[in-house]
């Protein structure tokens, strides 16, 4: 089934640490829904992980324990988020990180997402190879993507990732790949840099 790459949910988590396997939890989810390349909705919610977060995480994200004490339980938030996703393909910057947390939080509520998951960071490494680094903030600056200067908050990062994603789709269109699928974007992320021109040439046929 053809799934256009411009109809996706772009998401970002803020978390208590790096690994749900080590007991870390999501503390904020932000997401943007794109349909035919147009933003049609967004989702943002803090969630109480059930324990205090470290001072490092609070200073890194600006999310304090007092903010989280007033936030709803993660299960409640993730149930709402599952409905927001529907059957959309998913995109995140450094998707392996966000996928781990999405899988862990969804497992707690026995929820699933049917859509494929693509990584904008891996794709940017292939399509924007001359960027100084492929961290989200550096790509935003390198490509002069409009932003409000907020980083490490879930919705702001999801908004910037969505703009980066659409920019990469526009650049593919300029190269003659006018309607890339989410499957092609995943393929780009897994393809060796030297083989990207041949892959895109095949798509133009």
UniProtKB/TrEMBL annotation:
<feature type="domain" description="Exonuclease">
    <location>
        <begin position="7"/>
        <end position="174"/>
    </location>
</feature>
<dbReference type="Pfam" id="PF00929">
    <property type="entry name" value="RNase_T"/>
</dbReference>
<dbReference type="InterPro" id="IPR036397">
    <property type="entry name" value="RNaseH_sf"/>
</dbReference>
<dbReference type="InterPro" id="IPR012337">
    <property type="entry name" value="RNaseH-like_sf"/>
</dbReference>
<dbReference type="InterPro" id="IPR013520">
    <property type="entry name" value="Ribonucl_H"/>
</dbReference>
<dbReference type="InterPro" id="IPR006054">
    <property type="entry name" value="DnaQ"/>
</dbReference>
<dbReference type="GO" id="GO:0004527">
    <property type="term" value="F:exonuclease activity"/>
</dbReference>
<keyword id="KW-0540">Nuclease</keyword>
<protein>
    <recommendedName>
        <fullName>DNA-directed DNA polymerase</fullName>
        <ecNumber>2.7.7.7</ecNumber>
    </recommendedName>
</protein>
<keyword id="KW-0269">Exonuclease</keyword>
<keyword id="KW-0378">Hydrolase</keyword>
